[in-house]
Every structure is written in C-alpha cells, then in structure tokens.
Amino acid sequence: MTGSRATIARIWRGRTRPDVADAYEPYLREAGIRPLEDKALGVQLFREDREGESEFITISYWEDVEAMSRFAGPDPRRIHHLPRDAEFLIELPQGVQVLRILAAKLPPG
C-alpha cells in the first residue's frame, strides 16, 4: 500500500467450476486485478479450491468511500462484471461488501 491509510475494504467473491478455475485465475488477474493495482491503495486475490467449486475473493483497500467511488462509480456496492465472467462463474455476484477497517496489522511486504 502507498503512504495513505486504508479505511475501507471492498470485497468481491466469485465461484467457478473446478474445470475452469485454472483458466479463470489468469483472466481475473489481468482483467480484474491489474486495473485495481493502478487505482486502489492495495489489492489481494485469494483462491480456495473445494469439492465441486473454486472460490475467488478479491479485497481492495481504499483511502475512503469517495476514493472507491471514483473507481467503482457512485454506488460502490454495484458489481461491474468482467466481460467473460458469465462464461466462467457459476453465478454472477449481485454485490460486493464494503467494510470499514477498524484494525489492521499486516506482515511486512
């Protein structure tokens, strides 16, 4: 993260079938994560492989709701699906979580 302090976390979740998870991961990195790296204070991408599905979770960190809204639009909970999401995801997510960060201690970088 840059020198600004993150006060907001925006959390997106999407699930794929196991047979397309390995193809979705690089697509999500390029089409979803790369734009966030340029705008958010920080971003993390997680993947959990389970029986029958793989879940991807993206957490982006923002200085405040206004900064997040400049990227996501006036309703920061609104989903902006990637062009190929319908091809990969089991169902299209209907929203994201927007959480205030109350405490954070991260390991060194």
TrEMBL record:
The keyword Oxidoreductase applies. GO terms for molecular function: monooxygenase activity. This is Antibiotic biosynthesis monooxygenase family protein. InterPro entries: Dimeric_a/b-barrel. Keywords: Monooxygenase, Oxidoreductase. It comes from Teichococcus globiformis. Its EC number is 1.14.-.-. It is an enzyme of class 1 (oxidoreductase).
